[in-house]
Amino acid sequence: MTSTTVPNASAHSGWGLTVAGLSHFTLELCHNFLPVLYPLLLVSMDLTYAQIGVTALIVGLVTSLPQPFLGFLSDRLGPYRVGALSILWIGVLMGLVGFAPNYLLFTLLVGLASLGSAAYHPAGAILATMHSRARRGAGMSIFSVGGNLGSAMSPLLLAALLPWFGLKATLVMAPIALVVGGLLYAQHGPLAPRGSGAQQPMSAVGAAEVSSSPFFRTALILLTIAAMTRAWFQVSLITYLPVWIETGGGTVAQASQLLSIFSFAIGGGALFGGTISDRVGPWYVVVISFFCLAPAYWLFLQSGG
What we know:
The protein has 305 residues and is mainly alpha-helical. It has one domain: Growth Hormone, Chain: A. It is built from twelve helices and two strands; from the N terminus they run βααααααααβαααα. A two-stranded antiparallel sheet has the order 1-2. Helix 5 runs antiparallel to helix 8 and helix 10 runs antiparallel to helix 11 (252-280). The longest helix is centred in the last third of the chain and has 34 residues, at 214-247. The termini are far apart.
């Protein structure tokens, strides 16, 4: 008989969602400072733009593709344990990337660290849903905002430490991950048989009927295409923005500020969009967002100074 983690007393409170959001914040804090390092690595490792693109591709693939397969870990070990171990894993490995002597070892460390992100996100989604109760849109938006804030703070933190410690400043991520990972692990409760609690919103038969319907398959395909398009746009911009800023005469500090503004805007959009989706429906929010994306990107490319 399979089992799942039964949440403790904090599971149906704002504290549980707060811890889930904090864990997402920490994961993204540890994982999203790489674009700030790229301009420095272009010089210290004599990298090319193509090598930077390969590293970004590896990060994207390792972060996303294994998620369906790593999701079973949350079913076997519980989302609290998997989330905590994922944060520790990514914090330690990303803390070591500043010590990598060459491009091959640097990319290997980054790729292995990204497995932590792949394992965390299914567990984190379970925690966010479990603590959101009826307001899942708002709950998921709060969880997403935690991650976006971590992404926003990551380049700022590294940019502040780089003048003092150089590339070895990445080591700061390890103790942060240790503290938050321990906090998340402390929230887990005892294991109980699956189906004994109220976490099953839909029976297995009902879920099978929904997943086999033509509408569900079409919606899933469209949602996957939308997610891939958003990821392609966002990762491309984040990866090369610091290099573009520095080649245009800017500094790493200025590039980190722009990255943070971009991530803060994503966080604000996630909070607003999640709340609105509870009122008007998620599809309206997705469609309107995509219609706004193209003209906004065009205006960005036309801007100067």
